[in-house]
Specification:
Layout lengths: L5 H7 L17 E4 L6 H14 L4 E2 L29 E2 L7 H5 L7 E6 L2 H12 L14 H7 L18 H5 L11 H13 L2 E4 L3 H12 L24 H10 L1 H32 L38 H11 L2 H7 L5 H15 L1
Parallel strand pairs: 1-3, 1-4, 2-3, 4-5
Helix pairs in contact: 7-10
């Protein structure tokens, strides 16, 4: 499809409260694969607000809040869809079909989704949906969840109505076979498929870390990702699972567990890449590799402002033999706030006058 909203966006983006980097502009073409019981409603609210603010075009279902889930997604399920028509945001529940979704969005759209620890997801799904799954109606006892986990095969049939809520629900949402066992080669292929189609996979247990990655990926502002936790259950309704029961959940939902492990590791690989780069810069730039006390800082350009009557704020010495190609970035990364403000042309005469006075009064 061809994006017809460029002219609108040129003007709507002018009301951003924060300046954007010249190297990137806010992403407006987004596919959010809304998985079940994963904090996805909170992400949906973020997308609704962004799309409304910038007058973007949503691909909405026709007459309901999902795209005829659990049926596989089809473009014909989108309200006012016309072949060749273009939307900016797709974000309601669906059973994912990448070939169909691609028809709705311009080239270069960013695909994101969210996963949750399969133990907590299964507990939440069972609590929320079990009355809609006839398979569970014949489970006796007060704690149906425990009874089910003690003998899931006795209460499960792949062909039964709404049975997908009881096993590997994430795999099912992504259009994959949710009845495969964890060691089935199709699980590996399924994970590879999700990895191929999605640019960023958020992790519910690390929601705020995920939002920072989302903000960076989409070149959005902090205001764009502010949120309140939506659709949360009251704590008294949560089932406290023993380690033994948690292990049974993971065994029963082995495909989802492998999917979650893969993308949880991927998220932390991105975080660790930043940590690795920081460690590299420390080794390149900082003499001794650590901060030092103020009186040991050799270059006043790197001496931070100190509290009245104290010298408790640490700073750094830059290596004398810094590689010339890294010298500028090292200097800038080591420069304290006041010196950097001066470098940027800010007049600090009152601050400097006070600094001179306090040094005389409190160090004499």
């Amino acid at each position: 499809c061809i994006n017809t909203f460029t002219a609108i966006l040129v003007f709507s983006l002018l009301d951003f409260n924060h300046s954007q980097s010249e190297e990137c502009s806010p992403t407006v073409d987004i596919m959010f694969m809304k998985t079940h019981k994963t904090a996805s409603s909170t992400v949906l609210n973020i997308l609704f607000r962004f799309g409304e603010k910038h007058k973007l075009k949503f691909a909405f279902p026709d007459g309901r809040n999902d795209f005829f889930y659990p049926s596989p997604f089809r473009c014909s399920q989108v309200k006012d869809y016309r072949p060749g028509g273009c939307f900016n945001i797709v974000c309601n529940h669906m059973r994912f079909d990448p070939q169909e979704v691609t028809k709705l969005l311009p080239p270069g759209a960013v695909y994101i989704t969210i996963l949750r620890d399969p133990v907590d997801l299964f507990e939440s799904s069972f609590h929320y949906y079990h009355r809609a799954v006839p398979l569970t109606w014949r489970i006796s006892g007060e704690n149906k969840l425990v009874e089910f986990l003690n003998n899931p095969q006795a209460f499960y049939s792949p062909e039964a109505y709404n049975s997908y809520y009881l096993k590997n629900l994430l795999f099912f949402d992504f259009g994959l076979d949710n009845n495969v066992e964890a060691d089935d080669p199709r699980v590996t292929r399924g994970i590879q498929s999700v990895s191929k189609h999605f640019d960023l996979v958020l992790i519910a247990e690390y929601f705020e870390e995920s939002l920072i990655l989302l903000k960076d990926k989409l070149c959005w502002t902090t205001e764009d990702i502010l949120y309140f936790k939506l659709n949360a259950r009251k704590s008294s309704s949560l089932s406290q699972l023993t380690p033994e029961l948690r292990a049974k959940v993971l065994e029963w939902n082995g495909a989802d567990w492998r999917l979650y492990q893969h993308f949880n590791a991927t998220l932390w690989a991105r975080v660790n890449e930043l940590r690795r780069r920081n460690a590299e810069m420390e080794a390149l730039c900082i003499e001794g590799g650590n901060a030092v006390e103020a009186q040991k800082i050799q270059d006043r350009r790197f001496l931070p402002w100190q509290p009245v009557g104290e010298s408790s704020i640490l700073g750094y010495n830059m290596k004398r033999d810094v590689d010339p190609k890294f010298r500028t970035i090292c200097e800038k990364m080591l420069t304290p706030e006041l010196q950097y403000l001066s470098d940027l042309g800010v007049s600090l005469w009152l601050t400097r006058l006070w600094g001179w006075v306090k040094d005389i009064v409190f160090t004499s």
